[in-house]
């Protein structure tokens, strides 16, 4: 179970800059932005690393959250995540990475702890920098690219018009799943969200 003496580190994976804001690859940023709004946290540049950080509590007197948007670009996300985990003394089991996932259809979520990175450079960087794979991942399905489109181009393009109609709901659901991991645990969250 979670250790209440330490905060939870919620790392949204994405790329900084307005040109990337609506990309599939930036859904992690979208989810942590919503979580920050829910807990009344305001993002600001952290003095120790290249990341925007917001802090808040989940509910009145609830667990402390440290929300992170690394500003190093996706492939180097692990450096700021590891630096902040060390700064806030967060154990790996209380680090949650929120990221896009090609191998899951759009509109589906999967939550797991540990495992491989599935070719996701942001996760690869986090595993290397944290020196462990034993952190939680909230995987936001973006589906496979159509036809022969390069997966790298696909994740760096914006959600389609049809997807955007549901995007707010899907981001809201992903934020709920993150809160569920913290308040109810991984297994409960998997049971609740994997069937949908």
Automatic annotation (TrEMBL):
<comment type="subunit">
    <text>Monomer.</text>
</comment>
<feature type="site" description="Discriminates between blocked and unblocked aminoacyl-tRNA">
    <location>
        <position position="15"/>
    </location>
</feature>
<feature type="active site" description="Proton acceptor">
    <location>
        <position position="25"/>
    </location>
</feature>
<feature type="binding site">
    <location>
        <position position="75"/>
    </location>
    <ligand>
        <name>tRNA</name>
    </ligand>
</feature>
<feature type="binding site">
    <location>
        <position position="20"/>
    </location>
    <ligand>
        <name>tRNA</name>
    </ligand>
</feature>
<dbReference type="InterPro" id="IPR036416">
    <property type="entry name" value="Pept_tRNA_hydro_sf"/>
</dbReference>
<comment type="function">
    <text>Catalyzes the release of premature peptidyl moieties from peptidyl-tRNA molecules trapped in stalled 50S ribosomal subunits, and thus maintains levels of free tRNAs and 50S ribosomes.</text>
</comment>
<keyword id="KW-0378">Hydrolase</keyword>
<keyword id="KW-0694">RNA-binding</keyword>
<dbReference type="InterPro" id="IPR018171">
    <property type="entry name" value="Pept_tRNA_hydro_CS"/>
</dbReference>
<feature type="binding site">
    <location>
        <position position="73"/>
    </location>
    <ligand>
        <name>tRNA</name>
    </ligand>
</feature>
<dbReference type="GO" id="GO:0006515">
    <property type="term" value="P:protein quality control for misfolded or incompletely synthesized proteins"/>
</dbReference>
<dbReference type="Pfam" id="PF01195">
    <property type="entry name" value="Pept_tRNA_hydro"/>
</dbReference>
<feature type="binding site">
    <location>
        <position position="121"/>
    </location>
    <ligand>
        <name>tRNA</name>
    </ligand>
</feature>
<comment type="similarity">
    <text>Belongs to the PTH family.</text>
</comment>
<dbReference type="GO" id="GO:0005737">
    <property type="term" value="C:cytoplasm"/>
</dbReference>
<protein>
    <recommendedName>
        <fullName>Peptidyl-tRNA hydrolase</fullName>
        <ecNumber>3.1.1.29</ecNumber>
    </recommendedName>
</protein>
<dbReference type="InterPro" id="IPR001328">
    <property type="entry name" value="Pept_tRNA_hydro"/>
</dbReference>
<dbReference type="GO" id="GO:0072344">
    <property type="term" value="P:rescue of stalled ribosome"/>
</dbReference>
<feature type="site" description="Stabilizes the basic form of H active site to accept a proton">
    <location>
        <position position="100"/>
    </location>
</feature>
<comment type="function">
    <text>Hydrolyzes ribosome-free peptidyl-tRNAs (with 1 or more amino acids incorporated), which drop off the ribosome during protein synthesis, or as a result of ribosome stalling.</text>
</comment>
<keyword id="KW-0820">tRNA-binding</keyword>
<dbReference type="GO" id="GO:0000049">
    <property type="term" value="F:tRNA binding"/>
</dbReference>
<keyword id="KW-0963">Cytoplasm</keyword>
<dbReference type="GO" id="GO:0004045">
    <property type="term" value="F:peptidyl-tRNA hydrolase activity"/>
</dbReference>
């Amino acid at each position: 179970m979670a250790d209440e003496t330490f905060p939870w580190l919620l790392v949204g994976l994405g790329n900084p800059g307005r040109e990337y804001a609506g990309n599939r690859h930036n859904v992690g940023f979208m989810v942590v932005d919503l979580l920050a709004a829910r807990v009344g946290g305001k993002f600001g540049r952290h003095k120790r690393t290249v990341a925007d950080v917001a802090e808040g509590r989940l509910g009145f007197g609830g667990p402390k959250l440290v929300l992170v948007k690394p500003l190093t670009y996706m492939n180097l996300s692990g450096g700021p995540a590891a630096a902040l985990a060390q700064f806030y003394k967060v154990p790996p089991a209380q680090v949650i990475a929120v990221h896009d996932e090609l191998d899951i259809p759009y509109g589906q979520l999967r939550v797991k702890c540990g495992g491989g990175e599935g070719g996701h450079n942001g996760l690869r960087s986090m595993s290397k920098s944290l020196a462990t794979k034993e952190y939680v991942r909230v995987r936001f399905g973006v589906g496979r690219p159509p036809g022969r489109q390069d997966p790298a181009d696909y994740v760096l393009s914006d959600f389609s018009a049809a997807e955007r109609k549901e995007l707010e709901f899907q981001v809201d659901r992903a934020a709920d799943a993150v809160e569920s991991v913290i308040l109810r645990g991984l297994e409960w969250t998997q049971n609740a969200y994997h069937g949908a």
